[in-house]
């Protein structure tokens, strides 16, 4: 039969498509990819089960990466689906699942949905004016990578905007628990727009102090987005320096570093003041 | 009250989200943005009306661009929505509508959905490995622009893939009807992957004949996608030279020029042979 990958979109249970909901209701087993992004604090298994009237099996990273054959078991004779926040092809892991299914001769179908990669258009910046997307990782005292700087710089040199996907730390263990071998995890941590802006300003400052030309600085225009697609979504357009003090509220946050702004983009950003 | 922009996604009537459908059913007036992309041959007003059990008002380009106040009439006291294929922020026009609504003090809410800009992930190329998106226009005998070449080149120099959105000609008039002032329009024309590949190979050939280094040539890997999100979607990965002869079937087509391929991307593309 068919292995379905079904996107859940960005908001709540009702952001599944009508077609996606029909597929969920007819599938023999319903998996929920449970380790990325907003599932940790927004949607949960119980909500989804109540809405679908179906049992939902949580598939953590181990199950998806190592045990995909468990998920795909009997998919040649029964319809199986896996639910994914956003669009199913936001993460490499799903490509692994698709490849494995195809190797097993199982038909794969995708029910697409919104992802942060297209929904950022709601701030008024045009999607075709975006360059490469970057991931910004949380710094520690001893590990402060800045490799994403070059990509933002390359985008800005061409006038392009940059989506910065902000770090999420889940299933972290304290050093104590790690040494004791205890599988006790710290609460998930989500990087904020303010933290990301602060890191970016520091990177630019260090480049400048090293005598280098910088592709952006504290005065560069940026856009903070929080909870895109939710009823309480928040969008703020300001400088990177100002963003370091903006409280965007609950996760998930996404930061955009602007490139060259077109007049209509400027007008749209003006509707999202500090 | 609220002016809603509701994305319809890429496929059929059932690709609206459950939340989107609830909004449509409660709105006082339901507009359908009728002049872009697939509405011309896929979804139509009658299908939507039957599925929603509601009257749907077609909003052509004139109405959206010049008459947005007609659409927004009474939106301060009644809920109004406009349906848009894909995600609502795929086109600049919707930014205009949003700005106008905000000027009038009307609350604007967006129900996001999949768009071709994120759904192309289904071919296995990672979304964060894409650079700037380009639009490829149909050549005529006397007008053969190639400005998108430089953008594809800049993407490839950084190893990035490029989405080529292919030209759609709607409401074209024959020279005869134009001169007679008759508002009779030719059937819509949709550029195919084969046509786009042919133009791109010609551009590369001309650059090379002019003694220039080229960022791609006839042997460069590309991916053709047709009817993404439909049940009969088709994906083919091959060289640009091969793509000039591939029959992808009904519109809409999208062509991707590959940058540097990661191993998992290569594995995925291998599942879409000629």
UniProtKB/TrEMBL annotation, chains A, B:
Its EC number is 2.1.1.314. S-adenosyl-L-methionine binds at residues 10, 87, 90, 115-116, 166, 228, 253. It comes from the Eukaryota. GO terms for biological process: methylation; protein histidyl modification to diphthamide. SUPFAM superfamilies: Tetrapyrrole methylase. It catalyses: 2-[(3S)-amino-3-carboxypropyl]-L-histidyl-[translation elongation factor 2] + 4 S-adenosyl-L-methionine = diphthine methyl ester-[translation elongation factor 2] + 4 S-adenosyl-L-homocysteine + 3 H(+). This is diphthine methyl ester synthase. It comes from Plectus sambesii. The lineage of its organism: Eukaryota, Metazoa, Ecdysozoa, Nematoda, Chromadorea.
């Amino acid at each position: 039969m068919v292995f379905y990958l079904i996107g859940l979109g960005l908001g709540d249970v009702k952001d599944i498509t009508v077609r996606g909901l029909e597929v969920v209701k007819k599938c023999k087993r319903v998996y929920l990819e449970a380790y990325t992004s907003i599932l940790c604090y927004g949607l949960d298994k119980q909500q989804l089960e109540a809405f679908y009237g179906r049992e939902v099996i949580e598939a953590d990273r181990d199950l998806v990466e190592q045990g995909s054959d468990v998920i795909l078991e009997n998919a040649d004779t029964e319809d199986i689906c896996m639910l994914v926040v956003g669009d199913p092809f936001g993460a490499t892991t799903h490509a692994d699942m698709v490849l494995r299914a195809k190797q097993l001769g199982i038909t794969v179908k995708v029910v697409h949905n919104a992802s942060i990669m297209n929904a950022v258009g709601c701030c008024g910046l045009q999607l075709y004016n975006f360059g490469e997307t970057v991931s910004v990782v949380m710094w520690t005292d001893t590990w402060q990578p800045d490799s994403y700087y070059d990509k933002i710089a390359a985008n800005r040199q061409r006038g392009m905007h940059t989506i910065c996907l902000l770090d999420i730390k889940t299933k972290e263990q304290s050093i104590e628990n790690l040494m004791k071998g205890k599988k006790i995890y710290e609460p998930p941590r989500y990087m904020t727009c303010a933290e990301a802006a602060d890191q970016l300003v520091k990177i630019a400052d260090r480049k400048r102090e090293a005598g280098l030309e910088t592709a952006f600085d504290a005065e560069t225009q940026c856009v903070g987005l929080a909870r895109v697609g939710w009823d309480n979504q928040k969008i703020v357009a300001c400088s990177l320096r100002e963003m370091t003090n903006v409280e965007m509220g609950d996760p998930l946050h996404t930061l955009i570093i602007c490139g060259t702004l077109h007049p209509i983009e400027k007008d749209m950003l003006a509707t999202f003041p500090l």
